[in-house]
Design goal:
By secondary structure, the chain is α+β, with helices and mostly antiparallel strands. It has eight helices and 20 strands. Strands 14-13-10-6-5-18-19-20 form an eight-stranded antiparallel sheet, with helices on one face. The relative contact order is 0.14.
């Protein structure tokens, strides 16, 4: 397995395309500081004006960074956010993207994860991610079924799918690292049915007892299961009703990713689908709440406008 600095060099040079003289801000916190330092070293080696910023860890995914960090993100050419909590759905990230900053978000990243997943065939993965994003964009209605008991429908009408390719070479481009998914914000108040998370859940980890959720008019109205369900309920209850919004339908496309309990990697696993609750303003939705939690579904069947595009985890397109 390649070492951490080698993986950081791939992230900086191949994924972000850092050029000599570009300002590169590395945002990190104590749990992920080793990754942040490796990225800073790689950015320095690439000739970037590398700045290392270590902040106090945020309370949850989607919580805003301190104002000095947000200001630096806004002014930078490139930002790599190797933080323990995700900055992907924050106003700070969105404003920096609008200003032209190229950004990669690496929430909860580990050395093993970075080394292993950056070995994926990113050209092939990007093609699959874009293809599924196009299918989601063209779709009006989605149906999701799993052996664990999920039977969920939602409208995609008027919403645009996005690919997470990991390649951020154009001004304002944004992705996760590791990358490998297609995603869309379902139309609010349209999701209906039963959602069963049997892989992993943001803020919870790998799921031992499946988390069963009842979904009505776009919101989770009941959460059942074991300790994992109780933990999820506590995470959502702290933010009120909007936290229960069905925020995202996503498709994993990275064949090197594994379910480890870290959602950054879990949601990229090829053959899985994920459903997120909470904030969706970063990719076309209108629900603004400082939390975004993804749940991973195993062996999903996904049907878009009557066409089966995934069957029991196997990609059919």
């Amino acid at each position: 397995m390649q070492d951490l600095l080698t993986a950081a060099r791939i992230a900086v040079s191949e994924c972000m395309g850092v050029k000599p003289g570009e300002s590169v801000v590395i945002v990190t916190d104590e749990p992920t500081a080793a990754i942040g330092r490796a990225l800073w070293q790689a950015a320095k080696e690439a000739g970037g004006e590398a700045v290392y910023m270590e902040m106090i860890p945020r309370a949850n995914d989607g919580a805003e960074p301190p104002e000095p960090v947000a200001a630096a993100m806004l002014q930078a050419d490139v930002v790599l956010a190797a933080t323990s909590r995700s900055l992907s759905h924050t106003d700070a990230r969105k404003e920096a993207s609008r200003a032209g900053t190229r950004i990669a978000s690496l929430p909860g990243v580990t050395a093993d994860m970075l080394c292993r997943t950056l070995a994926a065939d990113y050209r092939k993965m990007a093609q699959a991610s874009r293809q599924f994003a196009d299918i989601l964009t063209a779709g009006s209605q989605a149906e999701l079924i799993t052996p664990a008991g999920t039977k969920l429908t939602m409208s995609l009408a008027g919403r645009k799918g996005g690919p997470d390719t990991g390649i951020n070479l154009e001004p304002g481009s944004f992705s996760n690292l590791p990358a490998g998914e297609a995603y869309i914000a379902p139309l609010e108040e349209t999701a209906e049915g039963i959602l069963v998370i049997d892989g992993a859940m943001s803020g919870v980890g790998v799921v031992g007892t499946p988390i069963r959720m009842t979904v009505e008019k776009g919101f989770v109205t009941r959460i059942e299961g074991g300790p994992e369900a109780a933990k999820l309920e506590a995470l959502l209850a702290a933010h009120g009703k909007l936290a229960y919004n069905i925020a995202e339908l996503g498709i994993g496309t990275n064949d090197q990713a594994q379910i480890t309990g870290n959602v950054l990697e879990d949601e990229k696993v090829k053959g899985t689908v994920h459903i997120a609750v909470g904030n969706n303003t970063g990719f076309g939705g209108v629900v603004h709440v400082p939390v975004h939690l993804d749940g991973i579904l195993i062996r999903p069947t996904l049907i878009i406008d009557g066409q089966m595009v995934i069957k029991d985890g196997e990609h059919l397109v």
